[in-house]
Amino acid sequence: MKTGENSNHGFERFEDARILVTGGAGFVGSHLTEKLVQLGARVLVLDDMSSGIHENLTTVKDQITLQVGSVSDSVLVDSLMKKHEPEFVFHLAAQNLVLSIRNPRQDATVTIFGLLNLLEAMRRNDSTEVLIHSSTGSVYGEPLDFPQTESHARMPSSPYGVSKLAAEEYLRIWKDLYSVDYVALRYYNVYGPRQSSNEATGGGVIPVFANRLLADQPLRVEWTGKQQRCFTYVSDVVRSNLLAATKRECWCDFYNIATDEKTDILSLANLMMEVSGVHTEIEFAPKRPGDIRQFEPSIELAKQKMNYTPRTKLREGLRIYFEWLKSTKAP
After folding, report:
1. End-to-end C-alpha distance for the chain, whole angstroms
2. Tens digit of pLDDT for each residue in 8-24?
3. CA torsion, points 154, 128, 80, 125, in degrees to nearest 10?
4. 16-187+234-258 domain in CATH 3.30.70.3270?
5. Are 21 and 52 in contact (CB under 8 A)?
6. What contacts 90, CB < 8 A, 6 or more positions away?
7. pLDDT per residue over 21-78, tens digit each?
8. Dist. CA 134–CA 92, nearest whole Å
9. 0.85 exceeded by the pTM?
10. Interatomic CA distance for residues 94 and 98, integer angstroms
11. 3-state DSSP of the chain
């Protein structure tokens, strides 16, 4: 199926469903919110707007309820869960890897205590069927085996990976102790429209490169540039969330969510110059703390149990991204 082709088959369960999306004004969260609204859901977005922005929700602002606040506020979370009684919770509120290194305490507060607030509210109120948790391939740390299956050793090399791993363990324990259902999705290098390009706060490499290209600036490649990544288009990540929520047979497990293409950073830089039609110099910079040399995730479990298949190839995703970016810069 081509990117952008509309198919809601199998997602009828979301029609008129009550849904909470934490971090719903952010990059991935806003795309998920839009899709849920399209499917007819009644969506409550909780976002502290530290990285999310109101403009991300422009197309659905009159069709959702937006609560500005933090998932780390236990009183707020408990009151929202009691009032709205969401049937599904999609938990995307988090900091990124760079910010987690600068402020690990805040990272833990949002990622660990934020999740605990949701789990405790779910334990006290039985309206929620399942919590879909946005995790990360960073829980594995530097890979020991290739490809990395979900049973790979987990030795994270950043506070971001540590807090996400701790969150996964709380999910597992709350299922054992209180029968709270969950799915944890380990994302890999998500990209697409609305992703931050702020280099100072850890913006993704694709939007950073794209903005530098359009500004006719050199591309700054960290480390050797041979770091291998699996760049996953945002619509594939959104679909993985919807699949996870609706396929009960996949609940209470952990899944790698990635593309099946592997690309190193230097190859990405050259491909982006080719797609954009803009050519510039490449400069090298030191390794970023917590960076991983090679990601090679297996997505076989997600294919088998969730029917997840990545649909957008990197070249096509970059083309769409550049079109969107140029439209935002148009006079």
Report:
1. 34
2. 768 999 999 999 999 99
3. -100
4. no
5. no
6. 19, 20, 21, 22, 24, 29, 32, 131, 132, 134, 241, 245
7. 999 999 999 999 999 999 999 999 999 999 999 999 999 999 999 999 999 999 999 9
8. 5
9. yes
10. 12
11. CCCCCCCCCCCHHHCCCEEEEECCCCHHHHHHHHHHHHCCCEEEEEECCCCCCHHHHHHHCCCEEEEECCCCCHHHHHHHHHHHCCCEEEECCCCCHHHHHHCHHHHHHHHHHHHHHHHHHHHHCCCCCEEEEEEEHHHCCCCCCCCECCCCCCCCCCHHHHHHHHHHHHHHHHHHHHCCCEEEEEECCEECCCCCCCHHHCCCHHHHHHHHHHCCCCEEEECCCCCEECCEEHHHHHHHHHHHHHCHHHCCCEEEECCCCCEEHHHHHHHHHHHHCCCCCEEEECCCCCCCCECCECCHHHHHHHCCCCCCCHHHHHHHHHHHHHHHHCC
**Residue 295: which of 207, 212, 205 has the closest Cα?**
205
Q: Domain spans of the chain?
A: 16-187+234-258
Amino acid at 156: P
